[in-house]
Amino acid sequence: MPAEVRFDLLWPEFLVAGLAFAIFTLDFFLRPERKNILGWISAIGLLYIIAFTIPFLNDESESLFGGLYRVDDYALFFKVLSMAIGGAVILGSIHYVGKYLTHPGEYYAIILLSVLAMMMMAASGELLTAYLSLELLSFCLYILSGFALHDRKSSEASVKYILLGAFSSGLLLYGIVLMYGAMGTTNFAEMAAFLDGHGEINGRLLIGLTLLVTGLGFKMAAVPFHMWAPDVYEGAPMPITAYIAVGSKVAAFALVLRLFAEGLLPAIDQWNILIAGMAAVTMLFGNVVALAQTNIKRMLAYSSVGQVGFLLMGVASLSTLSSNGLMVHLVGYSATNLAVFFAIIAFYNYTGKEEISDFAGLASRSPFLAAAITISLFSLAGLPFLAGFVTKFYLFSAAAAEDLLWLAGVAMVASLISLYYYLKVARQMYISPATEGEDSTIKVPALLYGLVGVMVIIVILIGLYPEPLVNLIEDATAVILPGGDASALSLR
Amino acid sequence: MELYHVELLSAALFAIGIYGVLARRNSVLILISIELMLNAVNINAVAYSAFLDPGRLVGQVITIFVITVAAAEVGLAMAIILRLYRTMSTANADEADSMKW
Q: What is the pLDDT of residue A79?
């Protein structure tokens, strides 16, 4: 253990936490009608912290507190991504909060705290630290999903989320403790050394691993542990739905990828079938059930359950290639989902409706929103020239290269199914005429216009020119899988 | 006393907790069952630390953190259940069914 802990490397975390508490405090001093400014302060503050963090932590590689907390390029990548997602969601909520929610100060500050939790999840190098940051994130999301105080659905969503979330943390913790009992350590690196050394896999370890995967499966909404997702997505305020769909998935996969790559890779034969099976069921179930949905938020909930299946495929075939694929897909998925959700938020702010049939005639009411939704849904389905195609291509070919050709095949079928229900939305917008009395032009505020535009541009940019992103991601995965392909292949 | 005695106790407590979560209708009782699961975790953590890893305090540290997080979780969950009760006049998890499929 190093004699001196370099606390200065934690500046980004300190700054985000400080920003959150500054917002809590400022909230006391502002008159209610001026509280919108808190959203702007949080978003601009996050932007400054990103600009500070990138040069500050670039190429740092340090283990703090004896390996509990890592500061490296992998953590840096996810820290910047989390802050960007948090900032975008905050900007996207400003109009929504002004119109539908009370207590804006708490709202923005809790989002900032959850960004902090996401940053810690990507950096934790030990199971208990990982669990604590995961709980911080979950607590913030429980509160946020119940934030529409007088909405029945919102309270109901929040209760379902916290009961199932607490249950899943129980399973996760029991798994963590059993693994501690089996291996005598909770540190990822020491776990890998243990598994490499004796290779003694006993019942305690297997049960622990299963419970750990179950608990994490709950958190990222993989089938059969997805039951909370559709209800929470439908009941939560819309920007929070976007945040749960994007932010919590990014953070959960940041944690899962580091845990499996740094800690459990030597035992890959024990868990890859488990994860691969879960991935196959998840992608098929999510996409098939999405076919039957009439509420756009519920449809996107099942669609994101399906996307979790694709992402799990990258974990099941863990190697440098597939973790690159997973991270590329994660970035593409985030940008695309944020584009859809921002467009839907703009629509909801004006109309207050969220059924798919309400989108009829959107092409004439607001050609911009209709085009943005169509482009991003096509990207989710994986049509060429958009982010979804490139990222799915990376991910599927990685799985195929790692002997999981059947899983890549299942993923192709699931993608095809998903195209059907995405096209149903596009058909409503472009072919069905608007209902009588509801055909006024939709006014989109400049802020949401800009956000949707930026996200769509990112989606198209990743689709046409992914190399800079892929290079960044290759640097990041080199940290968690230092041996590269050679070590991953030699395990087989 | 052997390690497996404690492990059995903890597993039994954990199983009772899971049964409670699945069988109870009232949200507060579900929450209490979750507390049982977390206490099973605590017993296990201390037992492993004492029997298998006596030089270090990893298990005890896990226990302290779990107790703290569980307390925070109960506070938050009770507040949210109270909110459900105010809007829907029920705290039963199976009556909160305005969203399905």
A: 95
